[in-house]
Structures are given as structure tokens and as C-alpha cells.
Specification:
The structure holds 2 protein chains of 2 kinds.
Chain A (H helix, E strand, L loop, with lengths): L11 H8 L8 H9 L1 H4 L1 H27 L5 H6 L9 E5 L5 E5 L6
Antiparallel strand pairs in A: 1-2
Chain B lengths: L17 H9 L3 H23 L2 H18 L9 H26 L15 H5 L4 H12 L4 H8 L3 H24 L1
Helix pairs in contact in B: 1-2, 2-3, 2-4, 2-6, 3-4, 6-8, 7-8
The chains are: A mainly alpha, B mainly alpha.
Chain lengths: ~110, ~180
């Protein structure tokens, strides 16, 4: 079959010869080392353990920060809630929703 | 993982007791796996060469593919699918390496490869002008005789995308050959 001169098909034979030329034999020692190297064999589970540990550490540190933030008197807590009153003229009510109300027992309404 | 149903131009585990060898290897028999690897090696090297274009890289890649196969072998459900499965691991690994290499070339602001030598048909240098995916598709299609859907199965993707890569590879090669012939 007549083939046009720039047809990439003309590369196929030389490419096949090039790719299929004899290869160096397999390095069995290297393969055996890889098979028996537990470090390498355990690469994925080890990596998973590292990620899990990092995740646990991240969650723990977040909880710690959050815990500090909601401690009474902590800066973040002060921003979110009014200072707990020390005045005995106030009734402290905690609603089911967790909201805390300070109701004056006597005196003028605000 | 689904098995590839390829007409195996490379090698086959069926019919010569190798399925049994695959079962033994999957059960942890390193010697059985070594024999499988030894027989697979000469068939996998040309595939890796076609993608990576360098003997050293191809050998490294096939070694790595064999170790990946050893680790994942217990998950292979059908021992008869071992050959196609291994081929797929090797080709995908080669493609991933080739893409990483071409990215690092870009990062280093170096040309992907020097232009081909007009004096001779330098096959690897000519193929280096293609993107890794185009090169892989062209090689698997033109040299190894795989169909588009078989290539899609090997490299991941769909046959329509393979056709696009094959078309672009041929167009690029045609342009390169025209340039070569003109000089």
C-alpha cells in the first residue's frame, strides 16, 4: 500500500523494534528486597496511622481551645455572655435552651 | 476491581498453571510471585519504554509496578485476570511517572525535549514531543494493537477521549515528520 511520506504509520515499525529490543533481565534481588522490606510493605497502613494520629491531635487541640473559650471568665466567653452577676437582687434563670436570663427581683425595669 | 478482558498480545496466565501460581502468590508465596514477575518482565518493559522512553526509567517503573502488584495481590479476585491487571498497573504507573516528569520539566522552565535530529529518525526524541497521554495512546494503539476501549481500560478514561489523544498524537507526529523532511 502506498503511504504518504509524512504518515506517522512509518514510525510504527522502528518504534516496535526499539521498544521490543531485548531488555536487561529483571533484578530479582531488588524485587526480593522490596517484597521482604516490611517498611515498604507497610507503607500504606503506616501512612494511614500517621494521618489518623494527626487527625486525633487536631480534634483534641480544637476541643482544648474550645474548652478554654467557654470557661467562665475566658475572653471568648466574656464576649458571648454577660458577666455573671454578683448582685443578689437578680434572679438567675437558665432556660431549657441553655440561655441564661438575669431577672431583677426588685426595682425599676430597664 | 473489574478484570480486563483483553486479547492478550503480551502474555497469559491461563492454561499453563499460572493461575495456581497467582493464587499461591496472593497467599503470600514470594517465590511464586518471583516466578510470575520474571515471566512478566520482558512483556512489561516495552510498554513502559513506549511511555517513558528511557530504559532506566522503564525498568524502575516495572519494578515498582511489580511491588505494587505484590502488595495488592490479595485483593485480586480472579487469578485469570492477573496479566491484564498487572499490565494496567504498569501502564498507569508509567503514565503517572511520565506526567510528573513533564510537569517537573515545566517547573524547571526547560524545554520538554530537544528537537529531533533531522539526520536520523530518533524515535524516543520524536515521541518526547508528544504529551505523555498522546504518546501512550499512540504507542498502545499503533505498536501494541490495542483498541480504543482497551486503551481506555488500561489508562483510565473513555474510548472517545482516547480517540482524541490518538488523533492529536498523529497530527503532531505528521507535523514533526514534515518539519524533519523539510530540513
Amino acid at each position: 500500500m502506498q503511504r504518504e511520506p509524512h504518515d506517522p504509520q512509518r514510525l510504527v515499525e522502528p518504534l516496535r523494534d526499539w521498544a521490543h529490543r531485548p531488555a536487561a533481565p529483571i533484578d530479582r534481588a531488588r524485587l526480593t528486597r522490596g517484597i521482604h522490606n516490611p517498611q515498604r510493605a507497610r507503607r500504606s497502613p503506616h501512612g494511614l496511622a500517621v494521618w489518623l494520629a494527626a487527625g486525633v491531635a487536631l480534634v483534641a487541640s480544637s476541643l482544648l481551645v474550645l474548652g478554654r473559650a467557654i470557661e467562665p471568665g475566658a475572653p471568648a466567653a466574656r464576649g458571648d455572655r454577660p458577666e455573671p452577676p454578683t448582685d443578689e437582687s437578680l434572679l438567675v434563670l437558665q432556660l431549657e435552651s441553655g440561655t441564661v436570663l438575669y431577672v431583677p427581683l426588685e426595682g425599676e425595669s430597664r | 476491581m473489574t478484570a480486563l478482558d483483553l486479547e492478550a498480545p503480551v502474555f497469559s496466565a491461563a492454561g499453563d498453571g499460572r493461575a495456581e501460581q497467582v493464587r499461591r502468590a496472593a497467599a503470600g508465596d514470594a517465590e511464586a510471585f518471583g516466578s510470575l514477575a520474571e515471566r512478566a518482565w520482558p512483556a512489561l518493559i516495552p510498554l513502559a519504554r513506549g511511555v517513558l522512553l528511557k530504559d532506566g526509567d522503564a525498568e524502575d517503573c516495572v519494578q515498582e509496578a511489580l511491588l505494587a502488584a505484590w502488595r495488592a495481590l490479595p485483593t485480586l479476585r480472579d487469578p485469570e485476570a492477573f496479566d491484564a491487571w498487572l499490565r494496567r498497573i504498569a501502564v498507569r504507573l508509567a503514565l503517572r511517572r511520565a506526567r510528573a516528569e513533564s510537569r517537573s520539566d515545566l517547573e524547571a522552565c526547560e524545554p520538554a525535549a530537544p528537537p529531533p535530529d533531522p539526520a536520523s529518525l530518533d524515535i524516543p526524541r520524536l515521541l518526547a514531543q508528544l504529551s505523555p497521554r498522546q504518546r501512550t495512546v499512540f504507542y498502545l494503539s499503533a505498536v501494541e494493537g490495542y483498541t480504543d476501549s482497551e486503551i481506555a481500560n488500561l489508562i483510565g478514561g473513555v474510548a472517545a477521549t482516547v480517540r482524541v489523544h490518538r488523533h492529536r498524537a498523529r497530527r503532531r507526529l505528521r507535523a514533526l515528520l514534515e518539519t524533519l523532511d523539510a530540513t
